[in-house]
């Protein structure tokens, strides 16, 4: 069947039937598959229409056909057309730019607009078929920003061109775009410019809008905290930052730069909002291997976004194009959770007692339970009345670790020195916080601190500053950590027993050897003694108990067969004394036996006469006596 086609006038290329103007229709005869036909319309322009419109044609305008698809039923003209009353030619007595007469058609006869012209009520000019070009001249002070905005009435279409003092083109537009230019040269320099208006279509009046703005000058905090102008002098934003910064650019500071680190897989978004929206900035986002994205602001807004497949150092540079403005920079980073580190403070070591005005040392261990971290790691130590960080706390030190990569599952041991604050005596908390400024985006943010309690003293009663008062310190002039046998003495293996009272001063799992055989009494320690009260002097003992039938003895019983545990010097001396007594006893016994044997040999008498007290009715046997070989054969 046949169908209806409609034609519309619209202010844009999108047809909105309730807003746009239907100015005609026609009937399209029946078409077979792949047939085509030429369609023409009779149209009627309403009298109340005036302006530039796009012509849009829509097929099946009444929806009477059931089509496979209706998405291809309409098309708009590429360029708008003027509809409404048309301008006539310019009047005989033109007053271009508010002055009597016509503006000249070249630079030599250009109408003079003066220095840094600005109009609250822009003047008008006119071009027609007999006067196709008007040229105006002006002078611009260095740093002053010129904005040229020429608008036309009804059917007139023009081209606007900005020329330099030599008549060469600086910039030009046919699409009613605003032209911008900033005066160059040293302070006080005057630049001559020309504005050229050329007729393209139609005739009639135009409005010459000119605005000259003095250079913007940055003041206040934006000048005090101004970052550098390049990547080498950039301000540091930390790691994976999300920050909003207010800053300013002017003719004396034409660029600002910021640097930061991003993790693997991070998406970086940079947005700049310019206070003077018609001012233009260029922004660039570049990394440490030369990748770069650039964009120029439009309407006071510019936005850039980029992603990094690897951990990189990145810089954002905002550069001035014309006269300057205050602006707001917003940097946002999005790191996938699986690519984030996770730092926790595993332990803190500090003196249990510190003296007012003294210097103390604190150490801590940080564990990374997340993704590898190749960048800096900051730690802050606070002095507090409680276990929470607040504004009343004192910052003792800020530590920055910039070393090798902190890999997943690895720890880093750190330490720092601080001056003990002057405060009343009492119990205080040393709070160690990793990434206290939240510069690192972690998978878990609640495990970044640990607390160590310390006592603050105002009196000097701990000479060796080991946290044990002199009256309780067994070694008051020698710093130590022992607490079991004696307090405040050196403890090399850290088991709580002083080196002097530790039978095993270099083995933290053993400290007492009751039987002085080199096997420790602690059943859970290294080489425990299963017979702690019976010395195992045999070389073949494996558990600290004597081995029956083994006559070999240790040279030093405080050293086990495998030489894994070191005995103390005192235990070794005790064992030597025992061995010396046994040896002397054995020698005395041998001498007594030898004397008795010699006596028997010399007498060769009847045993009964020698021992008259023996009962003759009982038979008594004496054990055989084995004498050393040097005594020869002996008789009983």
Describe the structure concisely for a colleague:
By secondary structure, this protein is mainly beta. It has helices spanning 221-224, 569-603, 607-610, and strands at 3-10, 21-28, 51-58, 74-76, 81-83, 111-115, 124-127, 133-141, 145-152, 157-163, 169-173, 179-182, 190-201, 204-213, 235-239, 243-249, 255-262, 267-274, 281-287, 292-296, 301-307, 312-320, 325-334, 343-349, 353-355, 359-368, 377-384, 394-401, 411-419, 426-434, 449-457. It contains three helices and 31 strands.
Give an overview of the whole structure.
With about 625 residues, the protein is mainly beta. The protein contains three helices and 31 strands. Among the domains are: about 5-85, no CATH class; about 95-215, Jelly Rolls (Sandwich), CATH 2.60.120.380; about 220-340, Jelly Rolls (Sandwich), CATH 2.60.120.380; about 340-455, Immunoglobulin-like (Sandwich). The strands form seven sheets. Strands 1, 2, 3, 4 and 5 form a five-stranded antiparallel sheet that branches. The protein has a five-stranded mixed sheet with strand order 6-8-13-10-11, with no helix packed on it. It starts with a strand and ends in a 26-residue tail after the last helix. The model is unreliable at about 555-585 and about 605-635 (pLDDT under 50).
